[in-house]
């Protein structure tokens, strides 16, 4: 009888532990999840921007937002075609693309994304050395980072 109780108790303990692990929040797959840059958009201005990254396996997204880089005109939702190119530490680049953006009034801070791309385990991606190209009403606006992103590159699991 004691053996059966021990077996049931062990099964309950294991089940409780497994349920607790299933409900625990997962670890972030990309580190850091947010980074900042100072961007230069040429004739269209520039300023500080925040990049927010996520990862689900080999699929990743990056959203770019700035209160200092502003919309030159009122823009409707999902009207900006964007390509964010990030430099790989190992050489080459990775592109994140999309047409997602919220509606923006003239002078509002610009947000584009989430822009989607494909990553591999161990990829270390940095905005410095890459660019953000936004096509707005047929006009291409290109922004580049003036220096490395802070606190550092996005590293994917």
From TrEMBL:
N-terminal signal peptide: 1-24
Q: Which UniProt keywords are present, listed alphabetically?
A: Signal
At the top level, the lineage of the source is Bacteria
Descriptive protein name:
Lipoprotein
């Amino acid at each position: 009888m004691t053996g059966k109780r021990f077996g049931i108790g062990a099964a309950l303990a294991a089940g409780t532990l497994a349920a607790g692990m299933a409900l625990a929040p997962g670890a972030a797959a990309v580190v850091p999840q947010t980074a900042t840059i100072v961007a230069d958009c040429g004739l269209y201005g520039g300023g500080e921007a925040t990049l927010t990254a996520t990862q689900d396996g080999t699929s990743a997204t990056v959203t770019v937002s700035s209160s200092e880089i502003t919309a030159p005109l009122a823009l409707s939702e999902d009207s900006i075609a964007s390509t964010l190119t990030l430099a790989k530490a190992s050489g080459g680049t990775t592109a994140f693309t999309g047409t997602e953006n919220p509606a923006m009034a003239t002078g509002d801070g610009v947000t584009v994304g989430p822009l989607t791309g494909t990553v591999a385990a161990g990829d270390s991606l940095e905005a410095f050395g890459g660019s953000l190209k936004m096509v707005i009403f047929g006009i291409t606006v290109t922004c580049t980072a003036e220096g490395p992103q802070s606190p550092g590159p996005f590293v994917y699991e």
